[in-house]
Amino acid sequence: MNAADEYILFIDSGLGGMSVMDALIKKGCSYPVAFYADAKHFPYGKKSVRNISDFLKDIYKFAVSEFAVKMVVIACNTASISAIDTLREIVDVPVVGTVPAIKTAAALTRNGNIGVIATATSVRQNYLSDLANKFAVGANVYIHGTEYLAAAVEEECSGDDLRKLLSEELAFFKDKHIDTLVLGCTHYTFLKDTLNDFFHGTVRIIDSCDGVTRRILSLLPQNENSSSQTGNRLYLNDAKRVKQYKHWNLRYNWFQDIYIEDGAWKKV
Ligand code: DGL
Fold first, then answer.
1. Among 126, 138, 154, 203, which residue has the least CB neighbours within 10 Å?
2. 99 CB under 6 A from ligand 1?
3. How many angstroms from the chain centroid is the CA of residue 80?
């Protein structure tokens, strides 16, 4: 089978994982991406581990019934933290997860005060504090769950509304003197510039896109990584969101084909 016939299956609850996919596309990769946006179940950040495990398993089963899967990328911190092990039990290709870049932050912080923002479901588990204990020994790592930031990205919240939301959601960091902020949710990457303005450029903002991309490429055959992709496709399981997703795609031009589930799957 040649590369164009096998897909890298990306999974997220929505737009967030497209930040990781964008980084991969920019690096160049011969395999096309099939991005499954589980918008019907957004936000994962308010779902249980059990539910998220079931969503991922159903998505994988659907994907293999539709096309050949070369690799699975869980382009979502919440889903990776909650369900990567369960998914691996039923998947026979490599599964790459996304986890907050706390290790990178520990290497870069100057004053030893690191902030981490993530969804409620991610924060509820021990995973983030375990990462901090393992990779940021000696630093103060302040882990904070946000309520509406992922939704703000989905709804394209901007301007004063977004600034107001950020000041509410990030008030927790007011007295923490952080110089580094780890984005523990792939949706937040789309807020990077706004976050940078919010902190007046005094806080280094770190996401996981480069790390995940490196991992993906390291698992693909070396000689197949250089050419650029064509035939990227989006599967969106909430027909109500199609207008907005098409709008995003006009801006970034990621997908050549879009399929939506509206009773049955159809190409739009
Ligand atoms: N993009 C997901 C993450 O990285 C979360 C968004 C959601 O709550 O569904 O955690």
1. 138
2. no
3. 9
Neighbouring C-beta atoms of residue 227, cutoff 10 Å: 12
Check pLDDT > 80 for residue 263.
yes
Note the pLDDT tens digit of each residue in 48-87. Answer: 999 999 999 999 999 999 999 999 999 999 999 999 999 9
Q: Is the shortest distance between the CB of 150 and ligand 1 below 6 Å? A: yes
Question: Residue 10 — φ and ψ, nearest 5°?
Answer: -100, 140
- Mean pLDDT taken over the chain: 95
Q: Active-site residue 185, yes or no?
A: yes
The sign of the dihedral angle between the CA atoms of 22, 155, 146, 9 is negative
